Amino acid sequence: MESAFLKQINSPKDLRKLNKKQLSFLARELREFIIDIVSTKEGHLGASLGVTELTIALHYYFNTPYDQLIWDVGHQAYGHKILTGRRDNFETNRRLNGLSGFPKRSESEYDTFGVGHSSTSISAALGMALASQLKGEHKKKHIAVIGDASIASGMAFEGLNHAGVTSANLWVILNDNAIGIDPSVGALKEYLLKATVDKRPLQANMIEALNFHYSGPIDGHNFEELLGAFAEMEKVEGPKFLHVITKKGKGLQKAEEDQVKYHAPGKFDKRTGELIDTLDKNLPPKYQDVFGLTLLELAEKNEKIIGITPAMPTGSSLKYMMQKFPERALDVGIAEQHAVTLSAGMATQGMIVYCAIYSTFLQRAYDQVIHDVALQNLPVIFCIDRAGLVGEDGATHHGVFDIAYLRCIPNIIIASPSNASDLRNLLYTVSLGIENPIAIRYPRGRSQDKDWRKEFKKLELGKSKTLLSGNKIAVIAVGSCVADAKKAIQKTQDPSNFTLTDLIFIKPLDLDLIKKTLRQHQHILTVEDGSIKGGIGEEISRIALEENFAGKVESLGIPDKFIHQGTTEELKDLAGISNETIKNKLISML
Ligand SMILES: Cc1ncc(C[n+]2csc(CCOP(=O)(O)OP(=O)(O)O)c2C)c(N)n1
Ligand SMILES: CC(=O)[C@@H](O)[C@H](O)COP(=O)(O)O
Ligand SMILES: [Mg+2]
């Protein structure tokens, strides 16, 4: 690829040597570079293509890294990484020991704040701006770049509300492309659209009502407009807000046309944009589809069933129910706290609510789970997707804390099915009516269970299953670890040494089975895809102590440190929960 300008840029200092006319050439090269690498190495595409001009303009105008640039979520920061000294190793993006897919403070002085979860940028930038004031650094600028879906989240509003009564040198740049991963939702989206189309709401500008100086909307692909707006805003003191309109996927026709798919498209042909679908059509189903398709089936038979997702209709597969029953399947935007309490409210009225949230994003609604759901013992069904290690998204996205953070909450039942059929049957069982809230957690990716769409079977809540019976060591595993533990046992010389229990229920535990297992074995190994601290290993060790178990209880799980990015297989190996590491552990225990 010809890259006359990009190859000269090792930091924004080099960028600032270009004249304004050259910026458009650089934008073309930067887009091509991103497309070239993401087409084979995969990752988030559309968002970075959409902010190419904005990224160049920001680093051109502002004195980064002295001025603090904070990207919200950070999935749009590929151009930023490439222009700030990471061009030559950008092909390691999202790989083991490579660059993170999100800004990360330990990676570069230009990454002023670690991100991955949305809607934090305004609070972080305001914190920096207030600290700068206290230090007397009044000229230092703090720029939060936030998307239209992310700004609709409660946390972003908390930041705006506070900023409006300060004189902080805070710049909020709204990158409005009218889409999140899926189309943006809500009244704010409608307001922004009106502001873009006919400027009607500007007489009662809600941003100005929050004491911000408002500029825009401007064309975010036009350097003249961007640089001109920055210069104008410079003249105003205190918090300021620039409304920028961009197109997600800009520069790759297919990505512009199907913005949902090209948010993170997997491999594609860099010239045509055509997706390279290497997947065998006979593969077993993704867990998210087992959830989404089963829920649709259940909702067809029961009008009380409701589905709720905070901004992840495609990722959670709630989209199937949304297409058929739009009035009963709701995308509430990036609003995990609201999604949980909304579910609680509906449950008080006798609705059967399936609240589908990724494990990592449910962290944001922890108080709502405790205070609004569990304390009132409302029978909300949490469908917790992406539980365990998620791979290339890395530390911000692994779902490895849910077992620990849910286990300590009274009233809640926690299930972690190890295959598609059990997930399906659990979803069915809880639709028949439950007395408590329940969390059903399942991993990213595919089950190994092709034959899952069978007649529904009611499961007994709290009952575990023995999958293999042996006489020396009992392996008690949960969720995705069950398949790995089985493989590990099969790889040993004499598999008849080992019992394998699929816990299914983390809370309540199947105490009868666990006590029997303790009586019948020399040693126990627990395996979980969650944090070892606060995990089931600790609980089973406690029970073993109570039962005066004479043998050893050993535990495998995510160690007490953050696990970064890599393939899920690589990360399982690092964490000690791959089938190979489990096998080695079993051999050492014999
Ligand atoms: C708290 C939280 N919930 C959900 C997500 C998943 N997520 C990542 S990007 C995204 C959409 C962001 O849309 P927007 O802010 O408009 O940025 P764009 O992708 O359009 O640039 C969502 C929902 C997240 N990262 N954090
Ligand atoms: C940036 C972000 O938070 C999402 O795009 C996330 O990467 C989606 O993860 P899945 O690919 O597992 O749906
Ligand atoms: Mg957007």
Can you offer a commentary on this structure?
Helices cover 38% and strands 15% of the residues. The protein contains 24 helices and 17 strands. Helix 2 (22-41) packs across helix 4 (52-61), helix 6 packs parallel to helix 7 and helix 15 packs parallel to helix 17 (366-374). The strands form three sheets. A seven-stranded mixed beta sheet has the order 7-6-8-9-11-10-15, sandwiched between helices. Strands 1-2-3-5-4 form a five-stranded parallel beta sheet, with helices on both faces. It has three domains: 47-81 and 100-251, Rossmann fold (3-Layer(aba) Sandwich); 287-441, Rossmann fold (3-Layer(aba) Sandwich); 465-589, Rossmann fold (3-Layer(aba) Sandwich), CATH 3.40.50. The protein has 590 residues and is an alpha/beta fold. Strand 13 (473-477), helix 20 (481-491) and strand 14 (498-502) form a beta-alpha-beta unit. The longest helix has 20 residues, at 22-41. The chain binds thiamine diphosphate, 1-deoxy-D-xylulose-5-phosphate and magnesium ion. The site of magnesium ion (MG) has 6 residues, from loops. 1-deoxy-D-xylulose-5-phosphate (DXP) is lined by residues 44, 73, 75, 181, 264, 315, 386, 390, 393, 444.
